[in-house]
């Protein structure tokens, strides 16, 4: 049997169902490829389920998919994934391949950045268009920038996630990447003075959210990845009120201290 288990965005998000499965299967592979995981969080997950995980990289999950499926034919194997297991195509492919090979699959959904970042941005979920990833090689093509424009044409906000490989892209690089293509393509996606929402380490105790202008975000000390960014389309008056209230009263750390 194969288990695809979402861990949520921090050890505090581990569900009872996830904990039960991860502590009872024979082998647990931890996906260290599709998200940033702090060593101390990995240890906290391991403590919570009372075992150690085998670390799985891209080669183990993609090239090694057949091996994983064969293993799941013989014993109970779990793949533990930060966030929700079905937000990355890699895990959907493993799911499909397992079912095609008559391997039963059980999954556990998890709190995902796809909803958590939108919730924390203060904007309305139904007003978001497609999620866009800022690629590591952002200078090679403006397609990520054009995808934001496509959302904006439909008056939809954009959640931007950042590439993690070969190393996690940082907030300032991503903002500068957007400004770089704005200067060349001039589609009026983002300009200095526009209000955007930057978020870091959502779900963790050091989570940080900042509503501000592009230049204010460029000035912030963002700390360690992972990061997400929301580029709003036209704001509904209620959304505008929410953003300005967050900005005025609780800008910065996500959770009150103490
Ligand atoms: C491929 S997505 C991970 C999706 C994950 N399976 C999920 O469902 O949440 C990885 C990207 O999401 C964003 N991200 C992930 N976790 C985050 C967090 N805790 N805080 C802010 N951004 C995060 C970063 O841009 C990161 O590069």
Hetero groups in this structure are: S-adenosylmethionine
3D shape = globular
The poorly predicted ranges are none
Q: How does the helix and strand content classify structurally?
A: alpha/beta
Query: Mind telling me the CATH class of the largest domain?
Result: Alpha Beta
What is the topology, as strand order, of the major beta sheet? 6-7-10-8-9-11
At the fold tier of CATH, the topology name of the largest domain is Methyltransferase, Cobalt-precorrin-4 Transmethylase, Domain 2
Domain module count = 2
Instruction: Please identify which CATH superfamily of the largest domain we are dealing with.
Output: Tetrapyrrole methylase, C-terminal domain
- What's the rounded overall pLDDT mean? 96
String of helices and strands: EHEHEHHEHEHEHEHEEHEHE
Number of strands: 11
Largest sheet: 6 strands, mixed
User: What fraction of the residues are assigned to beta strands by DSSP?
Assistant: 15-25%
């Amino acid at each position: 049997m194969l288990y695809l288990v979402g861990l949520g965005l921090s050890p505090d998000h581990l569900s009872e169902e996830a904990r039960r499965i991860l502590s009872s299967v024979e082998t647990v592979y931890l996906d260290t490829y599709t998200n940033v995981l702090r060593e101390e969080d990995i240890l906290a997950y391991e403590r919570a389920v009372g075992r150690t995980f085998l670390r799985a990289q891209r080669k183990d999950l993609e090239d090694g998919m057949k091996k994983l499926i064969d293993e799941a034919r013989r014993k109970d194997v779990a793949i533990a994934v930060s966030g929700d297991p079905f937000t990355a195509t890699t895990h959907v492919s493993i799911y499909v391949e397992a079912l095609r090979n008559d391997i039963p699959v059980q999954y556990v959904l998890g709190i995902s950045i796809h909803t958590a970042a939108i919730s924390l941005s203060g904007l309305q979920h139904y007003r978001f268009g497609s999620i866009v990833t800022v690629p590591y090689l952002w200078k090679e093509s403006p397609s990520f920038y054009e995808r934001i424009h496509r959302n904006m044409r439909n008056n939809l906000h954009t959640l931007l996630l950042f590439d993690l490989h070969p190393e996690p892209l940082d907030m300032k690089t991503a903002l500068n990447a957007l400004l770089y293509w704005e200067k060349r393509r001039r589609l009026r996606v983002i300009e200095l003075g526009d209000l955007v929402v930057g978020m870091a380490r959502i779900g963790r105790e050091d989570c940080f959210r900042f509503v501000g202008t592009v230049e204010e975000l460029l000035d912030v000390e963002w700390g360690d990845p992972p990061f997400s960014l929301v580029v709003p389309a036209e704001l509904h008056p209620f959304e505008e009120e929410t953003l300005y209230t967050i900005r005025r009263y609780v800008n910065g750390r996500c959770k009150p201290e103490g």
